[in-house]
Amino acid sequence: MGEDVSNKQIILKEYVKGFPNASDLIQKTSTVKLKVPDGCDGAVLVKNLYLSCDPYMRGRMGKVEGSYIDSFTPGSPIMGFGVAKIVDSSNPDFKEGDLVWGMTGWEEYSLIKSTVGLFKIEHTDVPLSYYTGILGMAGHTAYAGFYEICSPEKGETVFVSTASGAVGQLVGQFAKLLGCYVVGSAGSKEKVDLLKNKFGFDDAFNYKEEADLNAALKRYFSDGIDIYFENVGGKMLDAVLLNMRIKGRIAVCGMISQYNLEKSEGTYNLVSLITKRIRMEGFLVFDFFHLYPKYLETVLPLIKEGKIHYVEDKVEGIENAAGALIGLFSGRNVGKQVVVVATE
């Protein structure tokens, strides 16, 4: 029989409209037995170590229908990607003590009934928190979006929006390693400096200081943009469309500028898709999970050789998780936002 322990949880109070606040999420303490319940075949009980704060989670805080992923349930713990340790298992593929990453609850302990998309961590000679980012969903997103969607070639010009975030910082570095010219946009001087001095971007700018985004892009891309890695949408996308080169590619990863609007902004320059023969494609990382082993083979040596740098913004304690998540939408984080729940 497993012992009973307290379990702090982050609960969605009710569906959110407009800009979210930390008060939309409440902390509750329940009790959990450290054993997979009888009848839950194929399940695992985990102790959560690190939780990942990601922009897509904003969509799940509202009532949405027809999306690729369900809304959170008011009154229940929210869900997200995280790193955890198996406490008990009724699944033959996982045993007590295994380290895993995948979808889990925002709580200290979670019962995961379906292990589809739960990855066993084999490489522990890197920080475990990296599996919330560079070695997890964010890193694999950058890899799939850049290489599989954009089909990049050496010497091409690449623009990355929200470039200092969990995904953008990696896209820019992948592009530089390939021999591309790379520019990123971010929302503060600190982040711009990070892009140029830490991540090796050729240049970067603070979009908040640019009254005319079209003119700004023309400064950095006098001959146009071959590849745009889209994380923001809105006015930035409209300006980019005017500056794309013929046969350019746009990988649509996210549109964080639109997530807190009750009515999305329109896009006015879509005719450029026709006149410049641009390919613009949205994607979800889930469609590329079959490439995850290949991604690990590619990125682990780059990390160990110091050819890829990764910046995390950690907060300690699940009691600070709500504020960390909401901070994403005002750009408060610098690098990948991670919540440290426990250290094993």
Considering the chains and any ligands shown, give keywords for the structure.
single chain; 344 residues; alpha/beta; seven-stranded mixed sheet; six-stranded parallel sheet; 9 helices; 23% helix
Architecture overview:
- Helices cover 23% and strands 27% of the residues.
- It contains 9 helices and 15 strands.
- The protein has helices at 57-60, 137-149, 168-178, 189-197, 213-220, 234-243, 271-275, 292-304, 321-327, and strands spanning 4-12, 25-33, 44-52, 79-89, 99-105, 109-112, 119-120, 157-160, 181-186, 203-206, 225-230, 244-252, 279-282, 312-316, 336-340.
- The strands form 3 sheets. Strands 3, 4, 5, 6, 7, 14 and 15 form a 7-stranded mixed beta sheet that branches. A 6-stranded parallel beta sheet has the order 10-9-8-11-12-13, sandwiched between helices.
- Strand 9 (181-186), helix 4 and strand 10 (203-206) form a beta-alpha-beta unit.
- The radius of gyration is 20 Å and the shape is globular.
- The model has no long low-confidence stretch (mean pLDDT 94).
